[in-house]
């Protein structure tokens, strides 16, 4: 579901991030991110869902597969941010 586009006081487009705070393009993880903690995964999902960055751009920028991104999205939808914990993945499988 796409969120309404909003502008902050600096004129930057933002969406509401996974922690409820504004998330701009500057706030997204760097493109060379190797350590994908829960918050970073959730930020990328929120940015795509909110239209801040396209799915195609996110996949290219972060060198992700569509399947990997969709797994993050599904985990958030089903279990919230805690579903993104890689160390507990077996507990969350169907």
Automatic annotation (TrEMBL):
<dbReference type="Pfam" id="PF06627">
    <property type="entry name" value="DUF1153"/>
</dbReference>
<dbReference type="InterPro" id="IPR036388">
    <property type="entry name" value="WH-like_DNA-bd_sf"/>
</dbReference>
<dbReference type="InterPro" id="IPR010921">
    <property type="entry name" value="Trp_repressor/repl_initiator"/>
</dbReference>
<dbReference type="InterPro" id="IPR009534">
    <property type="entry name" value="DUF1153"/>
</dbReference>
<protein>
    <submittedName>
        <fullName>DUF1153 domain-containing protein</fullName>
    </submittedName>
</protein>
<feature type="region of interest" description="Disordered">
    <location>
        <begin position="1"/>
        <end position="27"/>
    </location>
</feature>
């Amino acid at each position: 579901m796409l969120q309404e586009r909003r502008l902050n006081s600096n004129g930057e487009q933002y969406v509401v991030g996974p922690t409820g705070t504004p998330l701009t393009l500057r706030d997204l993880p760097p493109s060379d991110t190797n350590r994908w903690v829960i918050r970073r995964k959730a930020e990328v999902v929120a940015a795509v869902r909110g239209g801040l960055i396209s799915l195609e751009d996110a996949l290219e920028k972060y060198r992700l597969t569509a399947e990997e991104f969709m797994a993050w999205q599904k985990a958030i939808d089903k279990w919230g941010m805690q579903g993104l914990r890689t160390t507990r993945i077996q507990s969350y499988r169907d």
